[in-house]
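Self-study notes.
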Amino acid sequence: MFMILLFINAFTTIRPAQVNKKTTYNTTLIRYTTKLLDTILLNQDKKLRPQSDDGSPLVVEIDILIRSMGPISEQNMEFSLDCYFRQKWLDKRLAFNQAYSSKPEIPLASKMLKDIWDLSVLKVYFKLQRQQGYYVLQIYTPCTLLVVMSWVSFWINKEASPARVALGIMTVLSMSTLGFGLRTDLPKVSHHTALDIYILSCFGFVFCAMIEYAVINYAQIVYIRKQIHDLQGLDSNAAVSIFSGTRNIVCLFRLFGNRGPRDARDIA
C-alpha cells in the first residue's frame, strides 16, 4: 500500500512539470509569432495594392489545381468543380527585416518538418468536347431517313389518296417529335446552331413533300374541269372515244351514262 501511494505521489509531482513546460513553450511561440506579425504588418495597408519601384503594373500569378469534376449539365451549361485556386504576388511591404528581430531563432513544433519540402506541381488541362457519335445516331440519321421516306410518296399513284396522305402526315409528325423533342435536351442559346438549321431544313423537305400532293391533286381537278368545259356540245359516246386515254374522263361519263357532258358540269 505504501508503494502504491509513493508511485501516485511521484506521478502527480512530475506531471505538472511537464504541463508547465509545454505551456511555457506554447506561450513563447505565440508571443514571438505575434511580435513578428505585428512588425511585418506595421506599414501594410490592405486597401492599397502593392506598388513596384519602377511603377509597373502588379504581376499576379494564378494557378488552379483541380481535384474532381462533378456532373455536367448541357441544358443549363453548368458543371461542378472541386479545385484549389491560388494567387501569388510580391508585396515588399511585407518583407521581413532581420534588423527588427531580437531573437535569431524561432522555435517550431516538430510536426512542421513534414510540411517543408520542394514542391513539384503537375498541371493538367481539361478540354471538354461533345461526342459526335451520339448526335449522329440520335438526330442526324433518323431525320435523314424520315426525309427519304417522305420522298416515297412521289412514286405512289396520285389517285391513291389514303396512302399518300397517311405517309405525309406520318413523316411530318415523326419529324416534329424527333427533331424538336430532342432539341429540348440541348443548351438554350439565343443564336441558332448548325443542328437547328439541319432540323428545320429536314422539316421543310418533309412538309413540302406533303404540300406537293395537294398541289398535284388541285391541278388534276382543274384539268378535269377544263376538259368537261371543252366537251360541252358533244354526246357522251364521242367524248369517250376522243378521250379514251384519260381514265378520269372515261369514269366520269360512265358515272353519268348517256345524259351527256352538259349534265356533268354541275360537279365542275
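Second protein, same conventions, sequence then structure:
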Amino acid sequence: MNPFSISILSFVSLALIMDAVLMVIWSAFMGIKRHGRVCIEDRSINQTAKELAKGLEDHVCDSYAQILCGKAGKIWVPESDILNALDESKSDKYIHLEDNVFEFAKRRALESIVNSLETRPDISGNKDFKCPDMSAEMHKPLLCCARQWMYKHLLHILAVAVMLIGLIRVLWRIKKRHTLLARAEELYEQVCEILEQNAVMAKNAKGGDEKWVVASWLRDHLLLPKERKDAKLWKEVEKLILEDSRISQYPKLIKGESKIVLEWQVEGSLGPKVRRKEASMNTEIKRHHSISSTNKQKQVKECDSLYT
C-alpha cells in the first residue's frame, strides 16, 4: 500500500471519529439519545425541563401574588431574575447534571414559559415575564384570600354578626325567663304544700297552733342563698299565690312589727303529697293501736294461764 492510500485512510478515519464526537455533542445539546440508527428524546432531560419551567412559573406567579396581597413583589419579572433562579436551582437541586445537559434543559424551560407566561421586551432587548391574572389569583396564600374576602364582605359580616348577637340575646332571655317561671312554679307548689301541712297540723293539734305562716319566713326558708338576690323570682311566686283563691294573704302584727302572713283557707282540699302524709300518719297510728291491743291480749292470756 502506497503512502498516498495510507493518508487517505487516516483522513477518513479521523473524519468518522470527528463525526461521532460531533454527533454525541449535538445529541446531548438537543436532548436526544442515539440507539443504533434511531435517535430518541432523553426523558430525564425533558422531565428536568418541565420541572424547571414549573418552578419558573411558580416564581413569577408568586411574585405577582405578593403584589396582590399588598406585599413586596414584582408584576413583571426581568429575564435576568429568571436566569438567576435557574442557576440557583442548578446548584441546589440539579447539581448532579452535566453542564451541557442542564443548559439544554434550561433552554427548553425558557421556551416553555414563553408560551405559558406573558412577555414584553425591555429597554435592553431582553424579555420581562408576567403571570396571567387568573394564575396569580390561584397563587395567593389562603390567609391572604380569607383576609381579602373579609374586607370585601365586611358590611355583610357585620350585619350577620349583629343579627347573631341579637338572636343569641333573645334566646338567652327566653331561656332565662322559662327557667325563672319553672322555678317559680316549683316554689309555689312547695308553698301550697307547707300551708296545707300547717293547716292539718293546726287542726289536729290540741294547743291551738296558728294556721298562718309569715310570708318572709317562708321565702327565706325556700329560696337558695343565690336565689335571694333575684327579686323577680319571688315576685313571680307572689303572683301565683295571689291568683290562688285557696290562699289568704293579710297583714298581722307580730312582736310589734307588721308582717304579711299566708293561710290555707280550704278545708279538705289537700294536695296529693299532704294527703299521702296524712294517710301514712293514720296508718301508723292504727298500726300502733293494733300492736298495743295484741300485746294486752297476750298479757291477759299469760295471767289466766298462771292462775289456772
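Instructor comment on the second fold: Residues 35-40 have pLDDT under 50 and may be disordered.
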